[in-house]
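input
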Amino acid sequence: MDNENAIELSNVTKKYDGFCLDNISFTVPKGSMCGFIGQNGAGKTTTIKSILNVIRPDSGSIKVLGYDNRENEQKFKEKIAVVFDELPFHDDLNVRKLDFIMKGIFKNWESNTFFDYLEEFSIPFKKKIGNFSKGMKMKHNFIFTSCKIYKKSI
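output
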């Protein structure tokens, strides 16, 4: 699907007790990166979870790469990368076990690229992810999201 915007939110609302993400609309042009900065409780996480279809807004529409985020969740998730401040993996995994799992989930997963980057950034192969330092977790998260959708070009 060819679209000029990577993300499109139109009149998105999500209500919780004591909080309302109220009628949010914005676009993120294709080829750009986007980050959310704001005070606690501003709706950053609610917006991201809505875009990723982790939670369902009460109203409005969301498109990612031209796909409706509810109807075509699998299609757009194979083509995007999201970097969170925490690793979404079980603490008992090491990177070898994670590679094995990811090969079965993502059709574009590149094990060689993953291990090349891990070595380049001094991430241990046998150490459990739960024992990584904060810095190692952030490096690993960037490496993981890169290998999920891109082949190494260097």
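quick obs: Residues 5 and 140 are 28 Å apart (CA to CA).
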